[in-house]
Amino acid sequence: MKKVITYGTFDLLHKGHIRLLKRAKTFGNHLTVCVSTDEFNALKGKKAYTSFEDRKYILESIRYVDEVIPETSWDQKISDVVENDIDVFVMGDDWQGKFDFLMDYCQVVYLPRTEGISSTKIKRDLGMNH
Ligand code: C2G
Predict the structure, then answer these.
(1) Does 46 participate in catalysis according to the annotation?
(2) How far is CA 129 from CA 48, 50, 121, in A?
(3) C-alpha 92 – ligand 1 centre gap (Å)
(4) Tens-digit pLDDT profile for residues 23-63
């Protein structure tokens, strides 16, 4: 089994998220999504519209996703990769280079973001204070 992992908030799920997950899955045959808890989002300076439980529930329904685990800190990636026997770490290229330290533990892949869509844009367009 070739295992892939990716991290994120995945709030107000949209095509950009799905395209990231779909492409990430092509690097193996098992995809773990590590989804930010509400508390960790606060550390990231983000407030998700959808709760952690609901974001987890939604991610678990996606055909490309095999497992969803919580992201509670910036410091868990090495242990996540080692403890889950991860072969490939995948992130959008807005994070280009930021996780290269994982190259000692697994393959690191940054994928081009999907232009023109983001949770922030959705909230802005709907007139929600983000
Ligand atoms: N993404 C994308 N295209 C978009 C929007 C998002 O490819 N238009 C990707 C991001 O690059 C990221 C993933 O979808 O890889 C999840 O995006 P966010 O929920 O915004 O994740 P982020 O807040 O960047 O969290 O420890 C890492 C952090 O948890 C990443």
Answers:
(1) yes
(2) 11, 14, 11
(3) 6
(4) 999 999 999 999 999 999 999 999 999 999 999 999 999 99
